[in-house]
Design goal:
Layout lengths: L15 H26 L5 E2 L2 H9 L3 E7 L3 E5 L4 E4 L7 H8 L3 E5 L3 H31 L14 E2 L16 H15 L2 H4 L8 E5 L6 H12 L3 E5 L10 H15 L3 E6 L18 H13 L8 E7 L7 H4 L6 E4 L5 H12 L10 H6 L6 H17 L7 H13 L10 H20 L6 E5 L6 E7 L10 H22 L9 H16 L13 E3 L9 E3 L4 H28 L1 H14 L1 E3 H10 L34 E6 L5
Parallel strand pairs: 1-4, 2-5, 7-10, 7-11, 8-9, 9-10
Antiparallel strand pairs: 2-3, 3-4, 6-8, 12-13, 12-16, 13-17, 14-15
Helix pairs in contact: 1-4, 5-7, 8-9, 11-13, 13-14, 15-16, 15-19, 16-17, 16-18, 17-18, 18-19
Keywords: ATP-binding, Cell membrane, Hydrolase, Membrane, Metal-binding, Metalloprotease, Nucleotide-binding, Protease, Transmembrane, Transmembrane helix, Zinc
Family: Belongs to the AAA ATPase family.
EC number: 3.4.24.-
Length: 656
Amino acid sequence: MSEQNDPQQQPDGPNPWVRQLMIWGGIFLALLLVVTLFSNAGQNPGTSIRYSDFRDAVAQGEVQDVQLGEEIITGTLKNGESFSTVPVPNDIEITRLMEDNGVQFTGKQREQQSVLLFILLNSLPFLLILGIAFFALRQMQKGGGGGAMGFGKSKAKLLTERSGRVTFDDVAGIDEAREELQEIVEFLRDPQRFSKLGGQIPKGALLVGSPGTGKTLLARAIAGEAGVPFFTISGSDFVEMFVGVGASRVRDMFEQAKKNAPCIVFIDEIDAVGRSRGHGLGNSNDEREQTLNQLLVEMDGFEANEGIIIIAATNRPDVLDPALLRPGRFDRQVVVPVPDIDGREKILGVHMKKVPLAPDVNPRVIARGTPGFSGADLANLVNEAALLAARRNKRLVAMQEFEDAKDKVMMGAERRSMVMTDDEKKMTAYHEAGHAIVSVHEAASDPIHKATIIPRGRALGMVMRLPERDSYSYHRDKMHANLSVSMGGRVAEEIIFGHDKVSSGASSDIQYATDLARNMVTRWGMSDKLGPLQYESSQDGYLGMGQTMRTMASDETNKLIDAEIKGLVEGAHARATDILKTHEDQLHLLAQALLEYETLTGEEIKTLLETGKVDRPDSPRGPSIPAPVRGSAIPKAGKRFGGAKGADGDEAPQGA
């Protein structure tokens, strides 16, 4: 990309703060030098003597000439030496004494330099305070473009190759979005190729996606590939505490863009300024709305902005003003999704180029075990693996570091220093074993990835399940299986320890089951009594955030909704109870294995339930656990259905 000259940006110049400090430091040193020169100018050379000695020298005829001053008396002896002394006030006889002894004397007024010195010394503190205040004001205004009226200047920065060049080769896993934007780059490079068929360049493209999926990275890749000026600004940079600043900055930004057309303007987090109008708290003339109105006019108003392409990014398209989303302003809405398994493998390949890898590292295996991860999550995973390898004093990052980093990212860091009693460990082991046994015997449940009773994050233990493939929708049988698995921990506590000894560790399980059952009844139409109707509307954003509110329904319908939710959860509790009572020997077997090994993988759990022992040759533990007396076959993996990743963990009680 060709380098552009920006009057507000000087990449090769010094830091503005350093430049200002150097200027004011030089002024201060100059003032000190002037003070020193004036101080030296006010002093006369010569030996300082007492006034009485001066009178004696005059009386003895040793003085040749004298200059009388109000603050100092200077003179020359007949032997050529100079002297100085401080006069005594009201000594009127000194002049007659000098006349009697033939001493030539003259009077001297206060020197003009002393007056200047006096004024300078008294005004120096005021000048310093004034200079500091002016410097602070300049720094406040510099963010708005500098100058006394610079608050309305645009904060858009011209991105150059010195800022770190990114190309489309650095963007992986989001091929469709990349192709959409690559077409804009090709239009900028060769506009005649499209215009000869009557096509017009898109005026704007809106990048929509969850956080961490690569929206800003795509924009940087466009800057690296386009070969045209690229301005970047954040949506929050438009709005200030001063009225009218946002609209002024929008105008100034487009003026800069027109001077550099054809060019690209990238607005990150545009929802900060582009929210729907009319939602102010009683103030229709809101500053943010003025800024949005000016942005709408500049993007597609009476004055055409030829050659200016606006690219914006947001993860909340639902809150944007409809006028901003219409064709002619944002002609394209490019969805940047969470990558699938192939995309995750490519993203891992991009990030793994920066770390030394051991021969056993397989990106495909890591990609299979990270469903739902965004590009930022995968970059964090690779970084955590590299940090673990460095902590272990290894020269290469091996597969074990990636597995440990994946567990840390998914389940949280281990808290091995947490002190738990034997009874708490036993209850946690049976709780997690209950989740695992129900998951194994529910055909629609996801396979178990790992079970542990080591506290991680806020959980005392955890059973992590991962789908066998990427899934984009839930099935009814899978939802019922997830309800049963969530109840498995509480049911295991009831069977082993009794109803009076159940713990608060199942709080998160109960919350998950209640929310899932409510969605099945009120949003997904999975209740036979209520039918395929929606009884709750959602104000969710793109990320599934926000509050859910119930629509207007009769009291009888609300009671029926509550009864159906309770029925689903109690039915899952009954299924989990039936499974665990039927396979109680497997429950004891797995709980004892968790107490002994603390952490078991999915394959080890499957081997344990099939053979009755765990084959871990590198473990310093004792002999294998004996096989159960009774049990049934383990469901095959082929009977399971894919789905989103899930984790079951029992939370630590408050204050534990």
